[in-house]
Amino acid sequence: MHPLQLNTACEGPLALNDKAFELCRDFVQPDGARFFQQVRRYEDYLANVLKKPESQAGDTLRLILPFLKAHGLTNQQLRDYSPKGLMLVPGAAGAYKFLHTQGFPIFALSTGYRQFAAALGQSLGFAPDHILATELDLDRYSLAAAEKEELLRLQEEITAAEEIVLPSETAAPEDLPPAVQEAIKICDRIFLERLPEMEIGVISREINPLGGPDKARVLEESLQSTGLKMNEVIYVGDSRSDVQALEAVRAGGGLGISFNGGQDAVKTAAVSIIADNAWPVALLANVFLLWGQEGVMELATKGSAGASRYLVLPEAVIDILMQGLQGRNFNLHAPSTRNPEETAQEGLAMRARLRGAAVAARG
Predict the structure, then answer these.
(1) What CATH class has 19-81+137-206?
(2) How far is the CA of 162 from the CAs of 30, 32, 181, 187, 327, in angstroms?
(3) Contact 131, 110 (CB under 8 A)
(4) Which CATH class is domain 5-16+88-135+210-361?
């Protein structure tokens, strides 16, 4: 049995896509991109301004489902669409091919719908039973014609409302401009009052996005399948949906890594990677395997000064890692030696460079 397990989030550490946004952009007409942005920021408002305890990372993925259904999206269309436009993080194909040859049990944990996670995992050689994602069966839900028409009207209300913008200093609803407060009231009425009354509202209640505590739960379940312990785990994440999994790994003595992450991930992870490619994950996995968390932290805190001791890896491993990292840019930071806000800003800038400013801002 291999003494190391690697669990990683999908969108961000593995793929540049924001597939839920892309689905809305391409299937929800007109103004699907704006519709998604409004719903995503409404989720942020519930979680970060109102701090509703029932608000979970990834709620946008269940809130948009009635509207995707209203535009006729089916299971087959979702399966066909998922591999289209797949954009891997640079170097991910080579880095994960290398890690697979080393025998690491590798799991992908995705808040996104399984159809996309499966397409992504297949492209990177993940075992199908090592892909853990939000389960979605659109075809088991029926939609009456009258409700379809109402959903299309509600969609227009959401997109026509003032753009929901939440400045970082927003602490309460009254801090927002009146027009934004009105847009949020529209979303409250639609998502908290009207949709629960509709028959199709059941889809938003039954579909449970794999984020937050559920990622921590399936992380524990993945260990049961491999027989390894939490101190033998590396978890790679980048967003609010990864916080509980990162916390579980930290508490169990494993290694939590933020990959171009936002503040939530940076503050929770043991080390942050800011990189334009996926190869630093493979580097840290091998350092962790040989030298444990102590070796990773010395490399992160001392940089090249720490590398002289801790990069004494097998020659074949070093050769492949150096080939993968050649010409690439990456930095390693530890919360103890670098302000987490500065690290998050650096990660946001790299995320914007790789994925575009709009996707980067969505976290």
Answers:
(1) mainly alpha
(2) 16, 15, 9, 11, 44
(3) yes
(4) alpha beta
What are the strands of the beta sheet with 255-259, ordered from one edge? 131-134, 106-113, 5-9, 233-237, 255-259, 271-275, 330-333
Domain boundaries for CATH 1.10.3870.10 within the chain = 19-81+137-206
pTM of the model: 0.94
Taking phi over 0 as left and psi of -120 to 50 as alpha, with beta for the rest, 292 belongs to: left
b/e 247-258 (16+ beta carbons within 10 angstroms → b): bbbbebebbbbb
Task: Work out whether the CA dihedral 22, 23, 27, 28 comes out positive or negative.
Answer: negative
Cα Dmax for the chain: 68
Gap between the terminal Cα atoms of the chain: 36
pLDDT above 60: residue 1: no
User: Residue 229: pLDDT above 80?
Assistant: yes
For CATH 3.40.50.1000, the residue range(s) in the chain are 5-16+88-135+210-361
Q: What is the pLDDT of residues 261-294, one digit of tens each?
A: 999 999 999 999 999 999 999 999 999 998 899 8
Asked if residues 278 and 339 have their Cβ atoms less than 8 Å apart, the reply is: no
Residue pair 2/105 in contact by the 8 Å Cβ criterion: yes
Output the CA–CA distances (angstroms, integers) from residue 205 to 39, 47, 101, 200, in the order listed.
Answer: 16, 18, 41, 10
| Cis peptide, bond prior to residue 30, ω within 30 of zero | yes
What is the secondary structure of 190-241 as a DSSP string? IIIIIHHHSGGGHHHHH---S-THHHHHHHHHHHHHHT--GGGEEEEE-SGG
Q: Letter for the amino acid at 178?
A: P
Partner residues linked to 107 by β-bridges? 7
Where are any strands of DSSP class E within 270-311?
271-275
